[in-house]
Every structure is written in structure tokens, then in C-alpha cells.
Amino acid sequence: MRSVPHFINGKLIEEAGHSNVFNPATGEVIAQVPEPSKEFIDDVVEVARGAALEWADSSLSSRTNILFTLRQLLVEHTDELAALISLEHGKTIADAKGEIARGLENVEYACGLIEHLKGEFSQQVAEGVDVHSVREPVGVVAAVTPFNFPIMVPLWMSANALAAGNVVILKPSERDPSVSIRLGELLQEAGLPDGVFNVLQGNATTVRALIDHPGVDAVSFVGSTPVARAVHERASTHHKRVQALGGAKNHMVVLPDADLDAAADAAINAGFGSAGERCMAISVVVAVGDVAGPLIEKIADRLDRLTVGPGDDPSSDFGPLITKEHRDRVASYVTTAATEDITVVRDGTTMEAGNGFFVGPSLLDGVRPGTRAYDDEIFGPVLSVARVATFADAVELVNSNPYGNGVAVFTRDGNAARAFSRLVRVGMIGVNVPIPVPISAYSFGGWKDSLFGDAHIYGPEGFAFYTRAKVVTTRWPHSTGSRIDLGFPTTR
């Protein structure tokens, strides 16, 4: 059985595997992931700290050249990387290529690091006194990434962190870790010095060890809300800089004047892409007024045309879920829906799946707060419809939900869209855009239980998170005379 290696100090390091990596389309165990000892983790952090000073002193132009080269290598190796992602995650090849493309956007943004890291300068704030500011790297960053985007989220974190002069220890999900190793090799090929980017395999114990380690200066995390909350609390206790992005329950509000065909297309694309295993997937369609009946009919018609199968089959619209346990959990929301007076419009739990971890597209009508299908982050191909009477009811439903990652509104009314954007308490909003993931020049992040810490990921807030501000006040006196003044210094 193949054991997925670590990538430490520019070298692949083999250890005996423990937890299983599956091909979700077949249920076959295809690799195992090691669980490093505390002593091994200590050695990895020591390597990272040893590389940190030299990398922080590297020129901005050399970092830029490395990132430009990485961008080209990612393009050249897209087919290979997409196949690795599809094999271990289960998403389609086309979806995996889309993930790589969104990661590339952030690498391209990070290539502008000379602009992003500029400081400020104020001349003659007092006689002979100047003030300037600089941004310096925080040091060693632990990047803990989720299974659903095994290369995009690592690129979201690592590109900015490396551009800012930090050293990265990436702890990928143990569900689909192999593409992270290739990312390390491509960074090395791009010219990144050994020890600046390391991939440490493992599990939750590994994450806790990194959070607790005094040699780790900052923690970036993406995962479920309960774990994000725990990571934030634990890292904060150790006085580390931390950003922890949690889960979501993304609503798509459809107003009576909306183009229902466009809304139905969007609900299918955003609800079932990647088998619903996206933190920005549409989970609940909020039908306002009398729009529910015709909208459900249009969604169901499109749902019936979807093909579910292995990710490497070009005819598949989406693939399996990541594990059998997750498959069974997702299916339970459909099989128990009727007990909560929810109508099962389409039941995807009955599809023939062989040994793979498949759930077909499912559609529920009549979900509401207090039902499992509404309250929980399902993270699978189950789309729910909630019915409300008015625009105000829709806004209240969105704002009452504990999550605040993404939301969309479909309407032809510009005033309604403007009011909705101002009133909802959610971090990312789409107007006739079902998955409002910002371009890389803006930062990604939610509100409420979707984010712990105050820094969003990538973009301007990413650079701010991975750097510390330093202000230098300078005086160059004109004379060499001595003067003692114990008064509080002022600029006057």
C-alpha cells in the first residue's frame, strides 16, 4: 500500500501510513497517510524556522520571479493535477481544472507583491523628523486546508504568505493529500529555496501540535464551524495570529420578478456542482411569494437531466462524496425529511452506486428553521426550498441564520437588489450570481459563525494577515548640541 510522503526541506520523506485515502468512485483504498510523532513535528518546525530568516531577507523581485514561474508550471501541469484531485476527491476533471484556475488567480495577484507590500512615508512631521511604515512577515505559518479544495485553498494561503516573506507548513486534508506534494515539488522547481514550503501529513493531532508549537507564528484554517471555532480559541490562547474560516448555509433568494429559468439554472449549478461539497454551494433556495411552485418545477426538470458518475468520466456532471460515512450522513437528511413534514421532491439516495460513495441529486420542499435539513450544513447534493411570503421575510430568514458566508438574490429590480445587499448580514453577496466568490483583488470571507478572527483570506486582507506593521520615526538633527527634555514628545 502506497504511503503518501511528507515534503520537508525540499525532500520527500516516507513514513508508514495509518489513515486511509479512498478512491470515492470505487470505495477502494488507494493510499495511506502517516501520523507524524511530536518529535518529527518539532524537526519540521525547526527546518521552517531555519529557513525563515533567509527567506524574509530575500528580494521582492526574486519572490516575484518564483511566483511567476509557479504560475506557468501550474498551467503546464493542470491535466496532471486535475487527475490527482479527481482520483482522491471524486470531483469531475472539469471541476478540478476550475479549482486550479481559481487558485491561479491568487498566484497572479501575489505576483504584484511589490505593490502590495509598499509602506508609507511622511516627511517633516516635526522639525527634522520623518515617519515611515513597513510591513514585515510574521514568520512561520501553519496552513491547515480542507478536503473539498485540495489545491485552491493551499494556493489561496500559500501564495500570499510566501510573497510576504513567510515560511509555510501546509497540513493538507488526510482525505486527498497527494496534490499538495506535487505543489511542493512545483514550488521547488520554480526556484523556491528548500525549507520555505513544507507539507506535513497527519490528522487532528498534527494540527493541535502545530497550533501549540512555540515555533509557529500564525495559523490559517478552513474547515467546519465547530473545528474553526476550536482552532481559533486554541491558537488565540497561545497568542498566535489566527484566521479560521468555518462552515456555511448559503441562501439563494428568488423574488417574484426574477427570471425563473436563469434562477433554476443557477440553483442546479451552484447546488450540485462538486456534489455540493463547496463552502459556497447554494444549500437553500428561498422562494418569495408565489414563485415556489413554478420554480420547483423548473429545478426538478433540470435535476432529472443530471448524470452522476466517476469524476474521470466526461459524461458525469458530478461525482461521489468524499467518504462512506459522509455519504451516509448526507443521505440521512433525505431519508428522514418526511418525519419533519418536508416534501421529498427528488430522492437521490436510491441510485445504484456499487461500492462508490454516491448520492444522486435530491430536492426537498418545505424546509424551515428547526428542521435538520435547514439547520445543518449538509455539504452534499441536497438542495432545499424554503417558502416565505415577502422580501422582508427573506431578509429576516437570512439574517437569523447563524452562518454568514455567502448569499445570492435573483431579481430584475435594481432597487430590491440594492436594498438586499445593504440589509443582509453576510460577507459575500451575489446579485443574479449564485456563487459570489470574489476575484483575487478582493478578500474571501464570511460573517458570524462562518469566520473566527477578523481577517478574510487572500487579496488585500491576506497580505495584511501575513505581515506585521512596523513604524519608524527618524530624526536627523542639524546640530551636534546636547539638550535634555523630559517632556512628552510632540510634533509641535
What does this structure look like?
This protein has 492 residues and is α/β, with parallel strands linked by helices. The chain folds into 2 domains: 264 residues, 3-Layer(aba) Sandwich (Aldehyde Dehydrogenase, Chain A, domain 1); 182 residues, Aldehyde Dehydrogenase, Chain A, domain 2 (3-Layer(aba) Sandwich), CATH 3.40.309.10. Helices cover 37% and strands 22% of the residues. The chain is built from 16 helices and 22 strands. Strands 14-15-16-13-12-18-19 form a 7-stranded mixed sheet, with helices on both faces. Strands 9-8-7-10-11-21 form a 6-stranded mixed sheet, with helices on both faces. Strands 5-6-22 form a 3-stranded antiparallel sheet. The longest helix has 19 residues. The model has no long low-confidence stretch (mean pLDDT 96).
Find the CATH superfamily of the largest domain: Aldehyde Dehydrogenase, Chain A, domain 1
The CATH topology of the largest domain comes to Aldehyde Dehydrogenase, Chain A, domain 1
CATH architecture of the largest domain: 3-Layer(aba) Sandwich
Beta-strand percentage range: 15-25%
* Count of separate DSSP helical elements: 16
Alpha-carbon Rg, integer: 25 Å
What's the CATH first level of the largest domain? Alpha Beta
Biggest β-sheet strands, sense, barrel: 7 strands, mixed
Give me the secondary-structure topology.
Elements: E1 6-8, E2 11-13, E3 19-23, E4 28-33, H1 38-56, H2 60-76, H3 78-89, H4 93-110, H5 113-116, E5 120-126, E6 129-137, E7 140-144, H6 152-163, E8 167-171, H7 178-189, E9 197-199, H8 204-212, E10 218-222, H9 225-237, E11 241-245, E12 250-254, H10 260-272, E13 282-288, H11 292-303, H12 324-335, E14 343-346, E15 362-365, H13 372-375, E16 382-388, H14 391-400, E17 403-404, E18 406-410, H15 414-423, E19 428-431, E20 447-448, E21 451-452, H16 459-465, E22 467-475
Helix pairs in contact: 2-4, 2-7, 3-4, 4-6, 10-11
